[in-house]
Recover the amino acids of this structure.
């Protein structure tokens, strides 16, 4: 785990957009008034969606909105690595998994591509369009090596298709996420070998409903 600190250069101010504020209010309404601090994580996420990253003025604004000490919001923002504390690329934030299964399947080669095309890790590219970093396991180990790019997983990657994905983002395209060898979820290459009966998924195998005396129907 790297040390996570706020960016050295900070904007002078932060303001919630109308859309962000409306969503923040929706989250706050889910909790009792005296517990509205419980909405801090979704609101940090909304702010990140609005700005691309979480700045120090934004942390203060969230603290004011939730009646929380700023330090408490800062603690959350610096603890969870999903919150970006520096500006990130406008086209793509590439998070390459470097944990053991992905590393054994070629993560280092993917990171070499990122380095050669974008520059040093955790550094905004010269044109401001790309950032890449190494992250810990993203829970898609069966589809290693993989990377999360913006909000989506790209799996079964090779150096060649990682380079293509970066080129596509650079050209303003939106590459399709998912497996690069055509897998659905984490099934074996070539298709599923178990649980292949379509009846498992059309509801026909569900147990009948029985009714207990003086009660609502329940599943048998
Ligand atoms: S090790 Fe890469 S997703 Fe788990």
């Amino acid at each position: 785990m790297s040390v996570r600190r706020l960016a050295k250069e900070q904007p002078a101010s932060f303001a919630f957009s109308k859309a962000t504020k409306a969503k923040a209010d929706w989250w706050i309404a889910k909790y009792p008034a005296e517990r509205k601090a419980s909405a801090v994580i979704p609101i940090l996420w909304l702010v990140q969606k609005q700005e691309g990253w979480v700045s120090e003025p934004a942390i203060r604004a969230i603290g004011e909105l939730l009646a929380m000490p700023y330090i408490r919001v800062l603690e959350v923002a610096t603890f969870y690595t999903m919150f970006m504390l520096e500006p990130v690329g406008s086209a793509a934030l590439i998070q390459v998994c470097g944990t053991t299964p992905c590393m054994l399947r070629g993560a280092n080669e993917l990171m070499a591509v990122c380095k050669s095309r974008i520059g040093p890790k955790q550094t905004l590219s010269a044109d401001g369009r790309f950032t890449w970093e190494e992250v810990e396991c993203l829970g898609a180990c069966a589809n290693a090596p993989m990377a999360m790019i913006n909000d989506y997983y790209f799996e079964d990657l090779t150096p060649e298709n990682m380079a293509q994905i970066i080129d596509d983002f650079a050209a303003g395209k939106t590459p399709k996420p998912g497996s690069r060898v055509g897998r659905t979820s984490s099934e074996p290459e070539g298709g599923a070998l178990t649980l292949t009966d379509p009846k498992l998924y059309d509801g026909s195998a569900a147990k009948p409903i029985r009714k207990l005396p003086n009660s609502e129907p329940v599943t048998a």
